[in-house]
Amino acid sequence: MIQKKDSSKIFIIGSFLLLITIFLGVAIIYEKNKKENNRIIKINLDTKVEKALNWKFLTKTNFINAEIGQIYKIDFNVENYSSKETSGRAFYEVKPNFLNKYFVEIDCFCYKKQTLLPSEKSTYSITFYIDPKIISDLKASDIKDINISYTFLNI
Fold first, then answer.
1. Quick one: pLDDT band at residue 35, thresholds 50, 70, 90?
2. What pLDDT is stored for residue 25 in this prediction?
């Protein structure tokens, strides 16, 4: 009878230790994945304007340290220096080029034609995130910087 009680205690203690080991393993894996997902990538922003378009086009910040998966909104200041109404459309380029698929724009002023009256100033914005799939791309594992260039063309 004493042996049954002893084996029950051993079973309970063993089960308890097994559960603690499993929980610790899960916690370690979770923290490791969380650390990888919180990787920071510096996004350098560049703005240009075609010569035929007499606009000033600047971002309010030249770079952002972006956490993968987090949504960001960046504002751009635009001013028409000409004495007439003019229109432009922006396009963007991501460097290195293969990272283009990970730069996900949710909303961007570059999707449509923008028109400014003479001497008009405006603020345009982009909303984006870096797709977490970048973490599993071996080519992107050493990437610490992404360069994004926005260029306004006269239309």
1. low
2. 79
Confidence of residue 5 (pLDDT cuts 50, 70, 90): low
Strands of 9-144, DSSP E: 40-49, 55-59, 63-67, 72-80, 86-95, 103-108, 114-116, 121-130
Please tell me the distance from the alpha carbon of residue 12 to that of residue 108, in angstroms, as a whole number.
59
The residue type at 24: L
Distance in angstroms (rounded) separating the CA atoms of residues 117 and 147:
31
Q: What is the pTM of this model?
A: 0.70
- Burial string for 31-52 (b: 16+ CB within 10 Å, else e) reads eeeeeeeebebebebebebeee
Distance, C-alpha 106 to centroid of its chain: 11
**pLDDT tens digits, residue range 109-147?**
887 899 999 999 999 999 999 999 888 888 878 888 899
Cβ neighbours of residue 56 under 8 Å, at least 6 residues apart?
49, 77, 78, 79, 81
The string of DSSP codes covering 107-153 is EEGGGS-EEE-TT-EEEEEEEEEE-GGGGG-GGGTT--EEEEEEEEE
